[in-house]
Predict the 3D structure of the following.
Amino acid sequence: MDMVVTIILAVQMISALVMVGLILIQHGKGADMGAAFGSGSSGSLFGASGSANFLSRTTAVLATIFFASTLMLAYFGTARTAPSSGSVLENTTLPAPAAPAAVPAPSGADQIPAK
């Protein structure tokens, strides 16, 4: 069971990192406007619109994998029926608080300043 959770966690982390990289590579909506006036290079590795389709589809697939792995991790995290979660704080016992020390009440002679 722990091996499955580890594999799902690894898939989630890898998909998140690749998805962040793909999102940073993609052009925004306003980037096409600059290319229309000649300031951008419309010829790229995937063609004029091929890179947008490829990158957006790959990002959508990675987002689906990320959300599915998140749901599986949430399910496996709540499906455990162990009596203890392994927390250190569950096994500690706090000592009983000590009774406060008796403080003698001040008498009138203690309040008179000495010369």
Residues 1-29+49-79 form one domain. The mean pLDDT is 77. The first helix runs from residue 2 to 25.
